[in-house]
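Supplementary Methods, section 5.1.

A reviewer requested that the exact input to the structure prediction be made available. We therefore reproduce it here, unchanged from the version used in the analyses.
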Amino acid sequence: MITGLLQKNKVDGLILNTQANFAWASGGANNWVSIADANGVASLVFKADGAAYAVLDNLEGPRFESEEKLGRLGFELIEAPWWESDKRGRLLFDLARGHGKLPQVASDNTMEGTLNWAGEVAHARWSLIADERDRYHQVCRAAAEALESTCLEITPGMSEWEVAGYLSQACYARGLVPFVTLVAADDRIFNYRHPIPTFNTIDNYVMVVLCAKGGGLIANCTRLVHFGPVTPDILEKQRHVQTIDATFNLNTKPGAVAGEIFAKAQQAYAYAGYPNEWQLHHQGGATGYAGREYRAGPGSTDVVVEWQAFAWNPSITGTKSEDTILVSSEPGHELEILTRYPESTWPTVTVSIEGLGSMERPDILER
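The structure derived from this sequence is encoded token-by-token as follows.
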């Protein structure tokens, strides 16, 4: 795919530096040491003639060769002295350039002297091939298991930090890196849409949100737990938000325009009696190698492609619904909920949308 993209645009070479693009172009390999850095410690170079290189500091070479297996994937590994990291950019450019007087080199960020192809590369990775879909199923299942098992361990009196700690442990034990863990107990669920954990302790109600990465792909899901019977007000809101979530998901089909999907969800908000709630938090959008490849909104022009992943996350104050889905036109695989698994005991509700069908949405777990 990358070679064809270069040839089509008459570009000599492409340099990929970011964690997301490295994982995408290497079949799930990791180039990070610090998960917080957008760029990793190794870069990939693709040339229009089909050559491919992995460039990294000498201290990284042994691990990348034996564990990331880049050599077996067809990359020629080029090690550079770590103390000459300031020369890395020149080395990458020289590898990527062609033999013409005016070389055209692209990169996935703002490298000096290169075309910024961040958007082109991001769009190219939206449609997941079979191997990626298999990996994504595994990642999303593991994330759902980590989240739901954590929710089953929560007890009143725990702090939000403790819950986040249990969740992180459950992720790492399954080979996932949790890079978003939001936890809100009781009043904080109603007050904040992005509740980072605090020492606030749980009384009756808790929301736990997870975005976890494995092999570069990101699983997104939310679950709610209530100790004792759910109050009628919360339950009514949850039923509405489940319907809105189903409206988002069931309208997400290859060829659909994101802005039109969003407009139908806005109508669902209004029909439920909450016409302005969508303004209080973003509603999600496409996912995959980024938590959100893009966030949909009014007038969004992005078009859903085959085998694309989405994570919609509608909310009505005090409630929320979110899972990661995969959509296609292939019979039997039109909509798959990736963050659900057969052995799950989490309660669900069947939501039907006229003219679109029905789907299961996670309910609030009463304990």
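DSSP finds ten helices and 19 strands in the chain. These observations are discussed further in the main text.
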